Amino acid sequence: MVTTENHSLVKIDWLQLEDQLNSRGSALIQSLFNAETCREVIAQYPQQALFRKRVVMERHGYGRGEYQYFSYPLPDLVAELRRDVYAGLVPMANRWNELMGLATRFPDTHEEFIQRCHAAGQCSPTPLMLRYEAGDYNCLHQDLYGEHVFPLQMVVLLSDPKRDFSGGEFVMTEQRPRMQSRPEVLPLAQGDALIFAVHQRPATGTRGIYRLNHRHGVSELRSGERHTLGVIFHDAS
Ligand SMILES: O=C(O)CCC(=O)C(=O)O
Ligand SMILES: [Fe+2]
Question: Which residues cross the membrane (predicted)?
Answer without folding.
Answer: none
